Amino acid sequence: MEPRLNLFGSSIGASFFKYINSAGKVVHDSGVPHATQELVKIRASQINGCGFCTDMHTKDATAAGETSVRLNLVATWREATIFTEAERAALELAEEGTRIADAAGGVSDEVWEAAAKHYDEEQLAALIGLIAVINAYNRINVINRQPAGDYVPGMFG
């Protein structure tokens, strides 16, 4: 499979990625644990069918010490006992934030309140930003048919 176009070689693409990467860096440096950030990115990417991002974030999580058991169970986190309550709240927020079109009311009050039990306002702002950024990346890669499998941790800096 080949991508539809080389977004990295496009001046518009390069400029766009500069800004979206800056937004991602703000979230990365927030108080949300990096393991939680990777779980959220993986789950949103699975929902959106983004192989490129799923490949990237499972490999980044593995390189950061995440276990294969936890990574293998992200898609079925509700039935898995290995995620903390805080991680579960973040995963549920990510799911509802990713599936906005599926829910007439968007993110439910119950899901928001569960997340607010574990994260302060700055962390909640970071989670919202994280969900928005990964969904943007997912859409870019799915639209462009960016192939998965060749990502090496750290290759983008």
TrEMBL record:
Q: What is this protein called?
A: Alkylhydroperoxidase AhpD family core domain-containing protein
Keywords, A to Z, come to:
Oxidoreductase, Peroxidase
Q: Which domain of life is it from?
A: Bacteria
GO molecular function, a single term: peroxiredoxin activity
Residue span(s) of domain Carboxymuconolactone decarboxylase-like: 19-96
> InterPro entries attached here?
AhpD-like, AhpD_core, CMD-like
